[in-house]
Amino acid sequence: MKPKDQVMMLSLGPSKLISAICDEINFKNLINEQIEWDESRCKLSPGARLKALVINILSD
What we know:
single chain; mainly alpha; 3 helices; elongated
């Protein structure tokens, strides 16, 4: 366990900016409207999954 006076820093890189751009263009809803999917069987929508994939690809 870390003492309380230590701070762990994480670098998010460009992921926050990419996420904001996806939100600005309404990426999740655009994908969800184009793909037929069952909301009762999925915890995450296809749009949310693709947004995460795009962020991961562009951040690495």
